[in-house]
């Protein structure tokens, strides 16, 4: 038991960042998005930043981290091709011993480890020894039911204490998850309740060969504005990422459509925004009326 006085006056441990405020030591973070939105390219660019001095988006990583990456979907060849493109773009010299990946081909005829089983938990626990970050890229293929009775709620109730135990022993957990048809993440609502941070990637309209998406903070337990502001992202074929605040991105789009003669309602329909969102941007960007200084009454 801890007394109130000890809670208020005792020493506090500051959050130690892995990547800005979004990914910190001893926390569970979930990134989700629809298929094809760019989740894996996003995560591999984050991995590169965690191993190199190059920042990713608006944040830098304070120091290189030791990463365990579970990849039940891509395989060694495609994983290597994607990561190599990022390394070539930045001309990076990454440490050889800081990233360890488990690919499907590593297990031959055996099934990929299932975190829902005791055997899968033992495998993950052993692989995470001395690792700062565990990346579970493909939660649906890492957390698999054993019978029709093992629904999402049942599996999360067994998996969550294990993930929390990993964090208590110093390993941050990053879950990469799929979105459902409605745009939210698949599975139980208990997942959102349990994680410390929830990030969403959604597609933005493409104007050229570059891939565009938005990064939104769906839940933030330990940080707030301005770090929770949504970002508009552009991922180029070369491997480079560009970003701007979503508010600035929307303002430029709205201003462009207004110069083409669209009214607020038409702009809202074209950009998928509400009428009030468009009107708020227009009210901020329009210059105030200059009235005559003489008495007009």
Description:
With 297 residues, this protein is an alpha/beta fold. The chain folds into two domains: 224 residues, Rossmann fold, CATH 3.40.50; 35 residues. 35% of the residues lie in helices and 20% in strands. The chain contains ten helices and eleven strands. The radius of gyration is 23 Å and the shape is globular.
Number of domains: 2
Roughly how many Å is the radius of gyration? Answer: 23 Å
Strand tally is 11
Report helical residue fraction: 25-40%
Mean pLDDT: 90
Largest sheet: 9 strands, mixed
The order of strands across the largest sheet is 5-4-6-7-3-8-9-10-11
Structural class by secondary-structure content: alpha/beta
Give a summary of the structure in a few sentences.
By secondary structure, the chain is α/β, with parallel strands linked by helices. Helix content is 35%, strand content 20%.
Mind sketching the topology for me?
Blueprint: H1 4-9, E1 17-19, E2 23-24, E3 28-33, H2 39-51, E4 67-70, H3 76-90, E5 99-102, H4 118-127, E6 133-137, H5 139-142, H6 152-168, E7 172-178, H7 190-194, E8 197-203, E9 211-220, E10 231-235, E11 241-245, H8 246-259, H9 264-271, H10 275-285
Parallel strand pairs: 3-7, 3-8, 4-5, 4-6, 6-7
Antiparallel strand pairs: 1-2, 8-9, 9-10, 10-11
Helix pairs in contact: 2-3, 8-9, 8-10, 9-10
